[in-house]
Protein backbone atom coordinates (compact mmCIF):
# COMPACT_ATOMS: atom_id res chain seq x y z
CA UNK A 1 0.00 0.00 0.00
CA UNK A 2 0.83 3.68 -0.03
CA UNK A 3 2.56 6.00 2.37
CA UNK A 4 0.49 8.96 3.64
CA UNK A 5 1.43 12.63 3.43
CA UNK A 6 1.60 14.49 6.74
CA UNK A 7 -0.72 17.44 6.15
CA UNK A 8 0.41 19.25 9.30
CA UNK A 9 0.31 17.42 12.66
CA UNK A 10 -1.75 14.62 11.08
CA UNK A 11 0.50 11.67 12.01
CA UNK A 12 -2.11 10.60 14.61
CA UNK A 13 -4.66 10.19 11.82
CA UNK A 14 -2.21 8.60 9.36
CA UNK A 15 -1.13 5.89 11.80
CA UNK A 16 -4.73 4.95 12.69
CA UNK A 17 -5.77 4.86 9.02
CA UNK A 18 -2.85 2.58 8.16
CA UNK A 19 -3.72 0.10 10.92
CA UNK A 20 -7.35 0.00 9.76
CA UNK A 21 -6.28 -0.38 6.13
CA UNK A 22 -4.46 -3.59 7.08
CA UNK A 23 -7.31 -4.94 9.21
CA UNK A 24 -8.11 -7.75 6.77
CA UNK A 25 -11.88 -8.32 7.28
CA UNK A 26 -12.57 -4.57 7.28
CA UNK A 27 -10.40 -3.97 4.21
CA UNK A 28 -12.05 -6.84 2.31
CA UNK A 29 -15.50 -5.42 3.00
CA UNK A 30 -14.48 -1.89 2.01
CA UNK A 31 -12.81 -3.09 -1.21
CA UNK A 32 -16.07 -4.81 -2.19
CA UNK A 33 -17.85 -1.44 -2.27
CA UNK A 34 -20.94 -2.89 -0.60
CA UNK A 35 -21.43 -0.06 1.89
CA UNK A 36 -21.26 2.78 -0.63
CA UNK A 37 -23.63 0.90 -2.92
CA UNK A 38 -26.30 0.79 -0.19
CA UNK A 39 -25.45 3.97 1.75
CA UNK A 40 -28.39 6.32 2.22
CA UNK A 41 -26.53 9.12 4.00
CA UNK A 42 -27.25 12.58 2.61
CA UNK A 43 -24.21 14.13 4.32
CA UNK A 44 -20.75 13.02 5.36
CA UNK A 45 -20.42 9.25 5.85
CA UNK A 46 -17.27 8.07 7.66
CA UNK A 47 -17.63 4.55 6.25
CA UNK A 48 -17.83 5.84 2.66
CA UNK A 49 -14.79 8.07 3.30
CA UNK A 50 -12.81 5.17 4.76
CA UNK A 51 -13.88 2.94 1.87
CA UNK A 52 -12.50 5.44 -0.62
CA UNK A 53 -9.28 5.85 1.33
CA UNK A 54 -8.60 2.11 1.72
CA UNK A 55 -9.23 1.44 -1.98
CA UNK A 56 -6.92 4.29 -2.96
CA UNK A 57 -4.19 3.26 -0.50
CA UNK A 58 -4.11 -0.40 -1.54
CA UNK A 59 -4.13 0.48 -5.25
CA UNK A 60 -1.27 2.98 -4.85
CA UNK A 61 1.54 0.57 -4.06
CA UNK A 62 4.91 2.34 -3.81
CA UNK A 63 3.29 5.79 -3.92
CA UNK A 64 2.48 8.50 -1.38
CA UNK A 65 -1.10 9.77 -1.16
CA UNK A 66 -2.72 12.55 0.84
CA UNK A 67 -5.73 11.60 3.04
CA UNK A 68 -7.36 14.96 2.28
CA UNK A 69 -10.98 13.84 2.53
CA UNK A 70 -10.46 12.17 5.92
CA UNK A 71 -8.53 15.08 7.48
CA UNK A 72 -11.05 17.61 6.16
CA UNK A 73 -13.78 15.81 8.09
CA UNK A 74 -11.92 14.96 11.30
CA UNK A 75 -13.79 17.59 13.25
CA UNK A 76 -15.04 21.03 13.34
CA UNK A 77 -18.82 20.63 13.03
CA UNK A 78 -21.68 18.20 13.31
CA UNK A 79 -20.81 17.07 9.78
CA UNK A 80 -17.44 15.63 10.83
CA UNK A 81 -16.07 12.80 12.94
CA UNK A 82 -15.82 14.79 16.19
CA UNK A 83 -16.07 18.39 17.33
CA UNK A 84 -13.44 17.63 20.01
CA UNK A 85 -10.59 18.02 17.50
CA UNK A 86 -9.00 21.28 16.35
CA UNK A 87 -7.55 21.97 12.89
CA UNK A 88 -3.85 21.16 12.48
CA UNK A 89 -3.34 20.37 16.17
CA UNK A 90 -1.67 17.14 17.27
CA UNK A 91 -4.30 14.83 18.75
CA UNK A 92 -4.27 11.53 20.63
CA UNK A 93 -4.34 8.59 18.19
CA UNK A 94 -6.42 6.42 20.53
CA UNK A 95 -8.96 9.19 21.05
CA UNK A 96 -9.22 9.61 17.28
CA UNK A 97 -9.60 5.85 16.83
CA UNK A 98 -12.50 5.80 19.30
CA UNK A 99 -14.28 8.74 17.68
CA UNK A 100 -13.77 7.21 14.23
CA UNK A 101 -15.13 3.86 15.43
CA UNK A 102 -18.17 5.64 16.85
CA UNK A 103 -18.74 7.40 13.53
CA UNK A 104 -18.34 4.14 11.58
CA UNK A 105 -20.71 2.36 13.96
CA UNK A 106 -23.28 5.13 13.50
CA UNK A 107 -23.01 4.76 9.71
CA UNK A 108 -23.68 1.01 10.04
CA UNK A 109 -26.88 1.51 12.07
CA UNK A 110 -30.30 2.28 10.57
CA UNK A 111 -31.13 5.99 10.56
CA UNK A 112 -31.94 7.51 13.97
CA UNK A 113 -31.05 4.30 15.85
CA UNK A 114 -29.52 5.14 19.29
CA UNK A 115 -25.85 4.18 19.68
CA UNK A 116 -26.59 2.14 22.83
CA UNK A 117 -29.36 0.18 21.10
CA UNK A 118 -29.14 -3.64 21.01
CA UNK A 119 -28.89 -3.15 17.23
CA UNK A 120 -25.26 -2.04 17.69
CA UNK A 121 -24.17 -5.65 18.15
CA UNK A 122 -25.56 -6.59 14.71
CA UNK A 123 -23.41 -4.18 12.67
CA UNK A 124 -20.45 -5.12 10.52
CA UNK A 125 -18.15 -2.98 12.67
CA UNK A 126 -19.20 -4.77 15.85
CA UNK A 127 -18.85 -8.17 14.19
CA UNK A 128 -15.22 -7.31 13.42
CA UNK A 129 -14.10 -5.36 16.51
CA UNK A 130 -16.83 -6.01 19.06
CA UNK A 131 -16.62 -8.11 22.19
CA UNK A 132 -18.47 -8.25 25.52
CA UNK A 133 -17.22 -7.62 29.04
CA UNK A 134 -18.77 -9.21 32.13
CA UNK A 135 -18.69 -7.20 35.36
CA UNK A 136 -19.44 -9.14 38.55
CA UNK A 137 -19.79 -7.65 42.03
CA UNK A 138 -20.05 -9.96 45.05
CA UNK A 139 -21.28 -8.62 48.38
CA UNK A 140 -18.97 -9.70 51.24
CA UNK A 141 -21.90 -9.57 53.67
CA UNK A 142 -24.69 -11.60 52.04
CA UNK A 143 -22.62 -13.07 49.15
CA UNK A 144 -25.21 -11.87 46.65
CA UNK A 145 -23.80 -11.45 43.11
CA UNK A 146 -24.67 -8.68 40.68
CA UNK A 147 -23.66 -9.14 37.04
CA UNK A 148 -23.79 -6.96 33.93
CA UNK A 149 -22.54 -7.64 30.40
CA UNK A 150 -21.61 -4.71 28.15
CA UNK A 151 -20.23 -4.47 24.59
CA UNK A 152 -16.76 -3.05 23.84
CA UNK A 153 -14.78 -2.18 20.71
CA UNK A 154 -11.37 -1.98 22.39
CA UNK A 155 -9.68 -2.55 25.75
CA UNK A 156 -7.70 0.09 27.66
CA UNK A 157 -5.20 -1.49 30.07
CA UNK A 158 -3.37 0.01 33.04
CA UNK A 159 0.39 -0.60 32.81
CA UNK A 160 1.60 1.08 36.00
CA UNK A 161 2.20 -2.34 37.61
CA UNK A 162 2.64 -4.43 34.46
CA UNK A 163 5.67 -5.00 32.22
CA UNK A 164 3.86 -7.27 29.74
CA UNK A 165 0.53 -7.52 27.94
CA UNK A 166 -0.23 -10.74 29.83
CA UNK A 167 0.30 -9.07 33.22
CA UNK A 168 -1.77 -6.04 32.17
CA UNK A 169 -4.65 -8.36 31.24
CA UNK A 170 -4.20 -10.21 34.55
CA UNK A 171 -4.51 -6.90 36.48
CA UNK A 172 -7.54 -5.93 34.37
CA UNK A 173 -9.34 -9.16 35.27
CA UNK A 174 -8.11 -9.38 38.90
CA UNK A 175 -10.43 -9.02 41.90
CA UNK A 176 -10.89 -5.41 43.03
CA UNK A 177 -11.86 -4.73 46.66
CA UNK A 178 -14.58 -2.10 47.00
CA UNK A 179 -14.17 -0.64 50.49
CA UNK A 180 -13.93 2.64 52.39
CA UNK A 181 -15.24 5.54 50.29
CA UNK A 182 -15.66 3.12 47.40
CA UNK A 183 -18.05 0.71 49.13
CA UNK A 184 -20.75 -1.00 47.08
CA UNK A 185 -24.46 -0.42 47.73
CA UNK A 186 -25.99 -3.89 48.01
CA UNK A 187 -29.66 -4.03 46.99
CA UNK A 188 -30.26 -7.06 49.21
CA UNK A 189 -28.53 -5.66 52.33
CA UNK A 190 -29.97 -2.17 51.67
CA UNK A 191 -26.69 -0.52 52.65
CA UNK A 192 -23.13 0.15 51.54
CA UNK A 193 -20.92 -2.87 52.08
CA UNK A 194 -17.47 -4.21 51.33
CA UNK A 195 -17.54 -6.09 48.02
CA UNK A 196 -15.36 -7.77 45.41
CA UNK A 197 -15.56 -6.64 41.80
CA UNK A 198 -14.12 -8.41 38.76
CA UNK A 199 -14.09 -7.93 34.98
CA UNK A 200 -13.78 -10.87 32.58
CA UNK A 201 -14.07 -11.12 28.81
CA UNK A 202 -17.44 -12.68 28.12
CA UNK A 203 -17.21 -12.73 24.33
CA UNK A 204 -13.90 -12.45 22.46
CA UNK A 205 -13.83 -10.13 19.43
CA UNK A 206 -12.59 -11.20 16.02
CA UNK A 207 -10.17 -8.26 16.03
CA UNK A 208 -8.85 -7.35 19.47
CA UNK A 209 -7.63 -3.76 19.86
CA UNK A 210 -5.63 -3.04 23.02
CA UNK A 211 -4.51 0.39 24.23
CA UNK A 212 -1.89 0.80 26.94
CA UNK A 213 -2.69 3.71 29.29
CA UNK A 214 0.61 5.51 28.85
CA UNK A 215 -0.64 8.99 29.71
CA UNK A 216 -1.23 9.11 33.45
CA UNK A 217 -3.49 11.72 35.04
CA UNK A 218 -1.15 11.85 38.03
CA UNK A 219 2.33 13.26 38.29
CA UNK A 220 3.76 16.33 36.62
CA UNK A 221 1.43 17.37 33.77
CA UNK A 222 0.27 13.78 33.35
CA UNK A 223 3.70 12.59 32.26
CA UNK A 224 3.87 9.67 29.88
CA UNK A 225 4.65 6.14 31.12
CA UNK A 226 7.48 5.42 28.68
CA UNK A 227 8.50 1.91 29.75
CA UNK A 228 8.63 -1.15 27.51
CA UNK A 229 5.59 -3.39 27.88
CA UNK A 230 6.35 -6.77 26.36
CA UNK A 231 3.94 -8.31 23.85
CA UNK A 232 4.18 -11.25 21.48
CA UNK A 233 3.18 -12.28 17.98
CA UNK A 234 0.69 -14.72 19.54
CA UNK A 235 -1.82 -13.94 22.28
CA UNK A 236 -4.03 -16.42 24.15
CA UNK A 237 -6.76 -14.67 26.19
CA UNK A 238 -8.32 -17.90 27.52
CA UNK A 239 -7.21 -17.23 31.15
CA UNK A 240 -9.04 -13.89 31.10
CA UNK A 241 -12.37 -15.15 29.78
CA UNK A 242 -15.53 -15.72 31.81
CA UNK A 243 -15.55 -19.31 30.57
CA UNK A 244 -12.29 -21.05 29.63
CA UNK A 245 -14.16 -23.15 27.08
CA UNK A 246 -14.71 -19.95 25.06
CA UNK A 247 -10.98 -19.28 24.78
CA UNK A 248 -9.45 -17.37 21.88
CA UNK A 249 -5.99 -17.16 20.32
CA UNK A 250 -4.79 -14.19 18.26
CA UNK A 251 -2.09 -13.15 15.79
CA UNK A 252 -0.52 -9.68 15.95
CA UNK A 253 -0.86 -7.61 12.77
CA UNK A 254 -0.57 -3.96 13.85
CA UNK A 255 1.43 -1.90 16.36
CA UNK A 256 0.91 1.84 16.81
CA UNK A 257 3.68 3.77 18.58
CA UNK A 258 3.88 7.24 20.14
CA UNK A 259 7.27 8.96 20.41
CA UNK A 260 7.31 11.93 22.78
CA UNK A 261 5.97 12.95 26.20
CA UNK A 262 2.46 14.24 25.58
CA UNK A 263 -0.63 13.30 23.60
CA UNK A 264 -0.60 16.85 22.21
CA UNK A 265 3.02 16.63 21.01
CA UNK A 266 5.51 14.06 19.75
CA UNK A 267 4.96 11.77 16.79
CA UNK A 268 2.84 8.73 15.89
CA UNK A 269 3.76 5.95 13.47
CA UNK A 270 2.87 2.28 13.08
CA UNK A 271 3.97 -1.18 11.99
CA UNK A 272 1.73 -3.54 10.02
CA UNK A 273 1.98 -7.15 8.90
CA UNK A 274 0.85 -7.57 5.30
CA UNK A 275 -0.76 -10.57 3.61
CA UNK A 276 2.72 -11.79 2.59
CA UNK A 277 3.52 -12.09 6.34
CA UNK A 278 6.13 -9.32 6.07
CA UNK A 279 6.32 -6.42 8.51
CA UNK A 280 6.58 -2.80 7.37
CA UNK A 281 6.98 0.47 9.23
CA UNK A 282 4.49 3.11 8.02
CA UNK A 283 5.77 6.48 9.18
CA UNK A 284 3.73 9.05 7.26
CA UNK A 285 5.18 8.95 3.72
CA UNK A 286 7.92 6.44 4.64
CA UNK A 287 7.15 2.77 4.03
CA UNK A 288 9.95 0.33 4.76
CA UNK A 289 10.23 -3.42 5.34
CA UNK A 290 11.78 -4.62 8.60
CA UNK A 291 12.07 -7.68 10.86
CA UNK A 292 9.39 -8.95 13.22
CA UNK A 293 11.84 -8.73 16.13
CA UNK A 294 12.20 -4.99 15.52
CA UNK A 295 8.42 -4.68 15.82
CA UNK A 296 8.28 -6.73 19.04
CA UNK A 297 10.93 -4.45 20.58
CA UNK A 298 8.74 -1.35 20.25
CA UNK A 299 7.18 0.61 23.13
CA UNK A 300 3.66 0.04 21.81
CA UNK A 301 0.72 2.37 22.45
CA UNK A 302 -2.01 0.42 20.62
CA UNK A 303 -1.90 -3.24 19.55
CA UNK A 304 -4.07 -4.90 16.90
CA UNK A 305 -4.62 -8.67 17.03
CA UNK A 306 -6.73 -10.81 14.69
CA UNK A 307 -8.34 -14.01 15.95
CA UNK A 308 -7.06 -17.31 14.62
CA UNK A 309 -9.71 -19.63 13.23
TrEMBL record:
Residues 2-308 form the USP domain. CDD domains: Peptidase_C19E. One of its GO terms (cellular component) is cytosol. InterPro entries: Papain-like_cys_pep_sf, Peptidase_C19, Peptidase_C19_UCH, USP, USP_CS. GO terms for biological process: protein deubiquitination; regulation of protein stability. GO terms for molecular function: cysteine-type deubiquitinase activity. Belongs to the peptidase C19 family. This is USP domain-containing protein. It comes from Selaginella moellendorffii.
Amino acid sequence: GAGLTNLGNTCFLNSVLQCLTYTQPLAEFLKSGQHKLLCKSSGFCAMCALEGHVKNALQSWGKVIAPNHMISRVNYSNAGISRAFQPWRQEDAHEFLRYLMEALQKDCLPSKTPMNSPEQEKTLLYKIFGGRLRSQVKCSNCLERSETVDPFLDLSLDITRADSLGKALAWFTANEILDGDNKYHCEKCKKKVRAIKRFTIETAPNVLTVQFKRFSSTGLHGQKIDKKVHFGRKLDITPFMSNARDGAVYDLYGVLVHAGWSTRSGHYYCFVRTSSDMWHVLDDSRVQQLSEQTVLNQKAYILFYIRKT
